[in-house]
Predict the structure.
Amino acid sequence: MSTPDKLHLNRDHALHLLRGMLRIRRFEERCAELYTEEKIRGFLHLYIGEEAIAVGAMQSLTPEDAVCATYREHGHALARGLPMTTLMAEMYGKRAGCSGGRGGSMHLFDAASRFYGGSAIVGGLLPLAVGIALADKLQGRQRVTACFFGEGAAAEGAFHESLNLAALWQLPVLFVCENNLYAMGTALDRSESETHIFRKAESYRVPAESVDGMDVIAVEVAARRAAADIRDGAGPRFLECLTYRFRAHSMFDAQLYRDKAEVEAWKQKGPILRFGQWMQETGMLDAAERDAMEADIAAELDEAVAFAEGGAAEPVEELTRDVYTEPRS
Amino acid sequence: MSTPDKLHLNRDHALHLLRGMLRIRRFEERCAELYTEEKIRGFLHLYIGEEAIAVGAMQSLTPEDAVCATYREHGHALARGLPMTTLMAEMYGKRAGCSGGRGGSMHLFDAASRFYGGSAIVGGLLPLAVGIALADKLQGRQRVTACFFGEGAAAEGAFHESLNLAALWQLPVLFVCENNLYAMGTALDRSESETHIFRKAESYRVPAESVDGMDVIAVEVAARRAAADIRDGAGPRFLECLTYRFRAHSMFDAQLYRDKAEVEAWKQKGPILRFGQWMQETGMLDAAERDAMEADIAAELDEAVAFAEGGAAEPVEELTRDVYTEPRS
Amino acid sequence: MSDAGVEMTYREALREAIREALNRDPRVFLMGEDVGRYGGCYAVTKGLYDEFGPERIRDTPLSESAFTGAGIGAALGGMRPIVEIMTVNFSLLALDQIVNNAATIRHMSGGQFNVPLVIRMATGAGKQLAAQHSHSLEGWYAHVPGLKVVAPATIRDARGMLWTALEDPDPVVIFEHVMLYNRSGPLAADAGAVPITGAAVRREGTDVSLITYGGSLFKALEAADALQQEGIAAEVVDLRSLRPLDDATIMGSVGKTHRAVIVDEGWRTGSLAAEISARIMEQAFWALDAPVGRVCSAEVPIPYPRHLEDAALPQVPDIVAAARATLGR
Amino acid sequence: MSDAGVEMTYREALREAIREALNRDPRVFLMGEDVGRYGGCYAVTKGLYDEFGPERIRDTPLSESAFTGAGIGAALGGMRPIVEIMTVNFSLLALDQIVNNAATIRHMSGGQFNVPLVIRMATGAGKQLAAQHSHSLEGWYAHVPGLKVVAPATIRDARGMLWTALEDPDPVVIFEHVMLYNRSGPLAADAGAVPITGAAVRREGTDVSLITYGGSLFKALEAADALQQEGIAAEVVDLRSLRPLDDATIMGSVGKTHRAVIVDEGWRTGSLAAEISARIMEQAFWALDAPVGRVCSAEVPIPYPRHLEDAALPQVPDIVAAARATLGR
Ligand SMILES: Cc1ncc(C[n+]2csc(CCOP(=O)(O)OP(=O)(O)O)c2C)c(N)n1
Ligand SMILES: Cc1ncc(C[n+]2csc(CCOP(=O)(O)OP(=O)(O)O)c2C)c(N)n1
Ligand SMILES: [Mg+2]
Ligand SMILES: [Mg+2]
C-alpha cells in the first residue's frame, strides 16, 4: 500500500473511503440476491473487487465535474453521490429510479451530479466524454470529465479516436481504465498485443500511469494529481488501474476462462480487506466501529430496497415519453 | 539517398525502378488531361510525387502476395503489374477495364495479381488486409499482404483495431503508411497528437520504421527487409514512408491549406528527379536512353488511351450484373 | 414444424450446424467476441472451443469493425469464415465494413472477387436488456444489394440454413432472435440443408395472411390459434429470407386470403413490414379486400421494465386485433 | 419556389444559414473533416474559417465515430454543435454513436438529458463517385426514434431549416443531396426560419400525387411538367421532413388525387418510399383508385460509368411512366 501518502491521511477521510467502498460492496451483494429473487432483471454487472477505483478516483472531482461510466457502474454512481434509494429503484425499473426506470442497471443517469451513466456499448462513452470536455473548455469552465471503462474497451476504435482527439485538442478528460484482466471471458493477453494499457495512452502523448487499483489511496493520489494537472489546462491524463472482478462478468457465467486459485489470490488483495486491515492495524478503526458502519449501511440498503419495492411503475400509457423533448405531463 | 545499398544496385534493376516510376508519373499526367477533357469523371486522386513508395515497396512482393490500397492507387496498380490498357479502360468506365468499368479510378481490382484495389473509405481496407493475411496463415501459405494507406487513415478506429489484430495474431501483413503530410487539407499536426506514425505502430508491438519515401531504394530496402521478416513468420511489419503529393488532393482543390514554397521545396526532392539525376551522375543512364524510355512509355500510354477509347461500354441491360454471383451470360 | 426426431433447442441446433460445418469443410472457422473460452454470449458455441481449438473457434478482441472486416478478407483469401457479432446493436460498429466492403466488392471488381462470408448475430428484445441491446435492425440489412439476409425461426431452419449460407458465394447475414435460443422441438434425424431464399407457409388458412419472421413467428402462430377460436382461419407465412423476399409465396397467400397483417419487431416507421406492405400494394392491390395491417414495435428505444418492454413489442393480442380489423371486426 | 429576392446557390444558402447561426448563438460551432482550412469537401463552409476561426470552424481528424460522439457530448455539455459528415456512406462509421447514444440518451435517462445536436451530411448520387460515395441511406435515419431527419430541397429550406434544427432540443440530421449544391434560385430578403416537421405541396394537381424529397424533387417537378403536356395534372409533395413524416399533407394530397407515386433515390427494397406506400395503404386505402407506385434506385451499388449511374437512379421518364400507370395509361 502507498504508505507515504497514507501517513498524512486523516482518520475521517479514511473512514469516508472505507465506507464508500463498503456501501458499494453491500449494494452489489444485495443486487445479486435481488437478481436471484427476480426483482432485478436484464444484465447485471457487479463491481465487487473493484471498489477502490471508483471511490479513489471520485475524490479528485468536484460537484461541477462530469462522470461517464459503463454498464458496470453502480459503484461509480454511489461514489459520485447518487442516493441508494433512487439507484435501487432504477434496478427495479421504477418511476422513482435515477433514470425514471427506463434504463435499469446498465443505464444510470443523474443530471444533478453530471453523471452521464451508463452505456452498454463497450467504448461508446469515450467520444462523449471528449465532447463534454470540449464543451467545458469552449465555455471556459475549469472542469474535469472523468471517463471510466474496462481494458476490453481499449481495443475498440472509439478508444483510439477519442484518445487522439482529447490529446490533439488538449481537453480536460481524465481517462480511467479499469483493467480487471478480462473482458467477459477474454483474458487481456488474448485481446491486446500490448498489455500495458497505459503505454497505449502514451502513444497519443497523453501522460499516463499504471496504478494499483486495489489500493484506494494509490488511486486517490494518482487521480488527484491527474485532475490537478487537467484543471491547470495541461490536457488529458490517463490512469490504468490494475484490478480484478471477484464475481462473474454478469450474473450468468460459468467462469471457465479462469481458475479458482487465481480468483482466490486476488480476493486476498481485495481493496476493502486490505484497507480495512490497515485501518485496524493503525488503530483508526476498531471492530465495534466497523460493525456500526456495517449496520448503518445495512439500514441504508434496507431503506433503499423498501423505497424501490414501494415505488410506482411507469404507467404503460407513458411508454413513448421522453423519446423526444416535450412538455412533461 | 541510401548509398550503401545503391552501390550493389545493378543497372537493370535501377532502370526497372526508374521506368516504374516514370510510367506512373506519365500515366497520372495523362489522366489529369483526360479529366479536363471529361473523359475521366468522378474523383481522381493522383499519385504524382509519391511514386517511389509503390514502386519500391512492390519489389518486395511475389506474384502470390496480395495488395490492398486506397483511392489514390493507380500507382500501386501499375507497379503491381496491371496493364496500362485495362487500367485506362477502367478510368473510362469501359467494359474492358480492370474492374469491368464498374469501379473507376477509386476501385481498381485484379484477381490475377491479387490486387484488392481500390477502397474509397479511408482506413476501410486495413481490416480486409488483416483477413487476407489470416487466410494465408491459416492455409499455411508463406504469403505477404501489403496494405497501403495515407497518414490520415491512422486516426481512424479501423487503423487501431487492425494493427492490434495483426499484431495479436502475428499475421503476415506489411503495413505501408504513405505519410504525405496532408489528409485533404488537414495537416498532420492538426490531425494527430503523435505525428510520428511509426511510433503508433510500435504501441501495438509492431516493429516499425520511418523511411524516406522520396527515395525508391530506401523504400525497396526497407520493404524487402520487412517482407523477409514477415515471410519468416515474424508477424506484421510497418513502414512509414515520408512523402508529399505534388498536386491537389483530387482534381479540384484550391490548396489554400499549404503554400507554394512548401510544394516547390518538396518537388526538388522528387523521387524521379533525384533517382534520375543519380543514375545519370553514376553513368547508369544517358540522355538518349532516358529519351527512349520516355518514348516507350508515351507509346504505351497512347496504346492504353486508344484501348480505352475503343472499348465498349457495358450495356445498360447489364446494370445489376455482379451484385450477386450468378452464371455469367 | 412437426418433424419427429431428437428433441433439441434452437441454440443446440445452431451449435450442431456450426459443428457440422467445421467438420465438413476445413476452410470454415468461426470468429467473434467470446465465442471460444467463454462459450459465446448466448452459449451457442459452448464446447466448440475444446473440440476445435483456438484457430477455428477464434476469440477476438472487442473490435467489431476489424474482425468483421477480417472476415471479409479471409473470405476473399479462400476461407469460409463465420463471424459472430454479439447483437445487432453492436453490429452498427461493423456496418461500414458490411455495407461498403462485403456488399460492394463483387460489383466494384466487375465480378472478379466474391465474398463467401457468413455473419451471425442475435437480434430482438424480450430480455429486459434496454435501449442498447434490444433492437431489431435486420430490416436495414435487407435494404442492401449484395447481401443475403435470413432469419431462421424454427429448429429445423436454425439447423439447416447455416450450411446453405456457407455454400453461398456471397455474404449472408443470419439473424437469431434472442427469445428463440431456449425454444426446443424435435428435429428429424435426416433433416438436411434448408434453402435460404424461400418463405414457408407455417399454417394454412383462408381468411387472412399473417406474414412474419424470426421471433415473431410463434406469436403469429399463437394469434392464429386464437383467431381460430373466433372462426377466423389465419394463414401464417414465415419469410425466413429477408433478402431476397419471396414475393411468390407472399402474393400466393394474399391472393388466397385477400387480407394481410405483417408482424415485425422492428420499429414501425421504415420497418421491413413497410416493404412487404408496399409490395403487396404493388403486386396484389386488386386482390385486397382490406388494407394491409402492420404490427410492429412502438417507436421508442426499448425500455428496461418488463411491462414497458412488453408494451413496446408486438404481442399476440395486437396481432389478433389487427387481423380482426382486416375483416372489419 | 418563386420568392423574389437575391439569387444564390443551395450551397450559399447553407453557408449563410451556418454563418447566421454562428453569429446568433455563441454556443454554436461547426466540426468535421476539412470544414475549416480546406473549406468543406463540397465547399459549403468556404470562408467561414477565416471569419470565425479554428475554435468554431473546427477541423477534425478522420474519426467519424469520435467527432460525432464528441458532438453529442458537447451538446450534453451545453453547446449547440453542428457536425458535418462528408457523405452518408461515411456516416456508417458514426452510426453507433448516432443510434445508440444520440437517439437514446434522452429516453434512457428518463428525460434528464437531451441532445441538441445537428448533424449535416451529403447524400445521393449523380457525380460518378461509384459504390462507396453515392448512396442514399437517409431512410435508415428516418427509422430511428429519438432522431429528427430533414432533407431540404429548395434554396429557402436550405437557408431556413438549420436555425430551426439548432433550436430543437433533440438531435436533427440534415441531408443535403450532392446534386443540389450548385442549383441556384432567388431567396427573399426576409425569408426566415422554416419549420422542420411539415411537408410542402410544391405544385398543385388533381390526378396523381408525386411524393418525394431532396434531390428527386426537381425530377418530380419536371415529370409533372411532362405529364401536364399529356393532360395529367400531377401534384408534387416535397416531404422535407423524413422523420416525423407529415401524414396529414400526404393523405390530404392522396385523398384529392386518389393516386400516388413515390420517388426516392434509396434502393427500392426497404426504402423510405416503402414506408410512405405502407402508410397510404393504412390511412387512405379506400381513397385509392390504383396501387401506389414507387420509383427508386435499382438494387445495385452505384456503378461508376455515367450511363449506368443514370440507369440506376430514378429519372424523369421513369416517374412519368409510373404516374401514367396509376391512370391505366
Ligand atoms: C460494442 C460492444 N461489443 C460487445 C459488447 C458485449 N460486452 C459487454 S461487456 C464486454 C466485456 C468488456 O470488458 P471490459 O471493457 O474489460 O470491461 P469489464 O466488463 O471487464 O468491466 C463485452 C464484450 C458490448 N456491450 N458492446
Ligand atoms: C471514412 C472516410 N472519411 C472521409 C473520407 C473523405 N476523404 C477522402 S480522402 C481523405 C483524406 C485522406 O488522407 P490520407 O489518408 O492522408 O491519404 P492521402 O489522400 O493523403 O493519400 C478524406 C478525408 C473518406 N473517403 N472516407
Ligand atoms: Mg475488463
Ligand atoms: Mg495524406
About this structure: The radius of gyration of chain D is 19 Å.
